[in-house]
Amino acid sequence: MKSNSLICTKTQTEYPLETPIWQSEQGDLLDIRFKPSFDKKNIRNRPANLWRYREALPIISDENIVSFGEGATPLQKILIEGQEVHLKLDFLMPTGSYKDRGSALMISKAKELGIQKVVQDSSGNAGSSVAAYCAKANIACEIYVPAYVSETKLLQIKSYGAKVVLVEGTREQTAQKAYEAAKHTYYASHVWNPFFFQGTKTIAFEIAEQLAWSVPDTIVVPVGNGSLLIGLYIGFRELHKAGITDKSPKIIAVQAKNVSPLYQAFTEGLTYIPAIQAQETIAEGVAIGFPLRGKQILQYVELTGGAFLSVEEQEIKSAWQMIAQKGYFVEPTSAVALAGLRQYLQNNDAGEKIALILTGTGLKASTKIASLL
Ligand SMILES: *Cc1c(COP(=O)(O)O)cnc(C)c1O
After folding, report:
1. By alpha-carbon position, which residue is closest to atom 14 of ligand 1?
2. d(CA 176, CA 192)
3. How far is the CA of 291 from the centre of ligand 1 (A)?
4. pLDDT, tens digit, for every residue of 282-319?
5. Window from 1-5, 38-42, 68-72, 333-337 with minimum mean pLDDT
6. 114-146 pLDDT, tens per residue?
7. How many angstroms separate the alpha carbon of residue 226 from the centre of ligand 1?
8. Average pLDDT, rounded, for the chain
9. What is the Cα–Cα distance from 324 to 331, expressed in whole angstroms?
10. Alpha helices in 218-278 (DSSP H)
11. How far is the CA of 286 from the centre of ligand 1 (A)?
């Protein structure tokens, strides 16, 4: 067993961490084996961005770091239904969503590997994030986007100089097109590429540091493909294993009821992800009918003693209104987690230390938001 490697989730075959691949030879998903280290004093003395956890991030040379100074978003206490909640304001990231954490690591790694062109598929935020980091890194970038996405998100992707390929049909059909194109290039995918989670895990590091190196009891997140959830799980586990914190929080994963394959698998006790009949949802960012890392997500949530919840469109809308009227302008997708939290509080005793991630800005979702006012 090597200490640093890419590892096939199916056969456990290992590849050196610096291999320019994004799937195993047989076409399966890869994870990363990497031993992070944490030095609280070093961390404290560095600038407030996610690179302060440098020894926990698998980039070899500082020269390859592609960064806008992202990270260190505020963690703010507010009252929701009388319960104190720590809000993590990741909608304030450089391109407007937490996806920048993943892109910062993934595109830095692509640069380190000498990659000159990447493809990605996205319903908006992952695409604009990857496009921005590719612009900064001077890497050519092609983004496959379903034809239905918000106009502003498309404009943002194009503005960074990325080539946009519009795909008629579902989110899954878009992913399939990108997957085929990626066979000849490098797939900067927030689902396939395991370096993405090495970036999203920094949200766990930040929350713990902001709570004086302790962790919440419970953390509530929206989930579609799980790129945030997987990162949170990895990050909190790394801190715990390194002896920096004394436990990992329970993860409460929230889906829009209209597209809720993970919720269904969880409540029905399935070990596979069922084929579902997806219906339209205002939460476009989590409208994922078949999450490729579904089994992994189910396993991670169960390992934390957590659960999946699903929320109706009306609950999402009402949660969006509630948080907007407290001064936080987020996109409807982000309100999925808050709607889930409100459900959770109805069924659980108060007194837990709870954190909630606000994932994306409202500024690029004006059309969807107009329908809510
Ligand atoms: C991508 C995204 C999510 C969900 O992330 P998954 O990786 O699909 O679980 C949630 N909120 C916003 C704003 C996003 O951009």
Report:
1. 285
2. 12
3. 12
4. 998 898 999 999 999 999 999 999 999 999 999 999 99
5. 1-5
6. 999 999 998 789 999 999 999 999 999 999 998
7. 7
8. 95
9. 10
10. 227-241, 261-267
11. 6
**Are the beta carbons of 108 and 99 closer than 8 angstroms?**
no
CB 358 within 8 A of CB 90: yes
> What is the C-alpha separation between 5 and 231, in angstroms, rounded?
17
**Residue of minimum CA distance from atom 1 in ligand 1:** 285
For the record, the structure tokens of 108 come out as: 């830095």
Q: Which atom of ligand 1 is nearest to the CA of 91?
A: 13
Residue matched to tokens 């100089």: 161
How far, in Å, from the CA of 173 to the mean position of ligand 1? 18
Which ligand 1 atom is the nearest neighbour of the CA of 190?
7
291 exposure class (CB count in 10 Å sphere: 0-12, 13-18, 19+): buried
State how far the Cα of 311 lies from the Cα of 292, in Å rounded to an integer: 22
Ligand 1 mean position to 41 CA, how many Å?
Answer: 32
Residues of the chain above pLDDT 70, percent: 99
For atom 2 of ligand 1, which residue has the closest CA? 285
Q: Cβ < 6 Å from ligand 1: which residues?
A: 97, 99, 125-126, 190, 222-229, 285-286, 288, 331, 333-334, 359-360
For 120-151, letters b (16+ CB in 10 Å) and e give bbbbbbbbbbbbbbbbbbebebbbbbbebbbe
Q: Is the pLDDT of residue 62 over 70?
A: yes
**What is d(CA 216, CA 345) in angstroms, rounded to the nearest whole number?**
15
Instruction: Tell how far the Cα of 242 is from the centroid of ligand 1, in angstroms.
Output: 28
| Among 269, 258, 250, 268, CA closest to 354 | 250
Tell how strand 186-187 and strand 163-167 pair up: unpaired
Alpha helices (H) in the chain, listed in sequence order: 40-45, 99-112, 125-137, 151-159, 171-182, 195-200, 202-210, 227-241, 261-267, 294-303, 313-324, 332-347, 366-370
| Structure-token pair, residue 337 | 């987690």
